[in-house]
Amino acid sequence: MHLILGLILLGLTTSSSWAGKVPEEINYQGNLREKGVPMNKEVDAFFRITNASGSKVYWSSDSVQKVKVVYGNFSVLLKPTGVKWDDIEDPHLEVVINQEVLLPREPLRSSVYSLVSGKVADGNITKDSLNEDLQTRIIPSGFVGMFKTDCPKGWSKLIGKNGEDLTGRFPRIDNSFGILGGNDSHNHGGNTGEAAHPFNSADRGGNAKNWVNHVHTIQGDSNVPKFVSLLYCVKN
């Protein structure tokens, strides 16, 4: 038995504007010949993803499939779920037809790795794996930003150095974080002490001066200029 095969990843022929989910299926197409003659019959097919020698199996189809071969051509839809493509070295597709392993095994080319783009494994993308220019654009931990909505994922509401609620406080440039101060209002007041006020007095010849005490008091008022409220959040 002679096998001519090909591998087509569903969705690769769609336009570049396609924005659907990355496919998780492989349309496997092959051509079977027996003694040089294209086959025209139903066969039992089984598939595995292995290393080049077949000694390691990374995935296998759930069961034997009945596949119809017409003029040597057949097509099978494979769903290799649970395969950790980034951990596999030199993966190959092993095809078993009527309990016969067809050799050589077919190497899986780069197009199959488009399956990985649907979901990147957690933790695989680190700062060190990014180019240097992009690394400089990453928001560092401790950065404080202003938001008009709740703090986004990875951010927390800014609180004081000792856990104080900072609602209503303005920031001030300083040499360290957490120094608190200032008031919302101010008040001017005081006692001027004794002051001389001249007045006419018959018994003093009209030139006498009387010393009196008086106090100037100004009502308290707000220090706060016009403002708009924003939420301060710190990068975790």
Notes on the protein architecture:
- The strands form five sheets. Strands 4, 5, 6, 8 and 9 form a five-stranded antiparallel sheet that branches. Strands 1, 2, 3 and 7 form a four-stranded antiparallel sheet that branches. The chain has a three-stranded antiparallel sheet with strand order 10-16-11, with no helix packed on it.
- It is mainly β and about 240 residues long.
- A hairpin with a 2-residue loop joins strand 2 (about 25-35) and strand 3 (about 35-40).
- The protein is rod-shaped.
- It folds into two domains: about 1-120, Immunoglobulin-like; about 140-235, no CATH class.
- Helix content is about 0%, strand content about 40%.
- It has one helix and 16 strands.
- The longest helix is centred in the middle third of the chain and has 4 residues, at about 130-135.
Count of helical regions: 1
Terminus-to-terminus distance: 61 Å
CATH topology of the largest domain: Immunoglobulin-like
Shape: rod-shaped
Give the biggest sheet: 5 strands, antiparallel
Helix content: under 10%
What integer value in Å does the Rg equal?
A: 41 Å
CATH architecture of the largest domain: Sandwich
- In terms of DSSP E residues, the strand content is 35-45%
What top-tier CATH class of the largest domain fits best? Mainly Beta
Query: How would you spell out the order of helices and strands?
Result: EEEEEEEEEHEEEEEEE
Unreliable runs: 5-20
Look at the helices and sheets and give the structural class: mainly beta
**Mean pLDDT reading:** 75
Question: How many discrete structural domains?
Answer: 2
Count of DSSP strands: 16
Assembly form of the protein: single chain
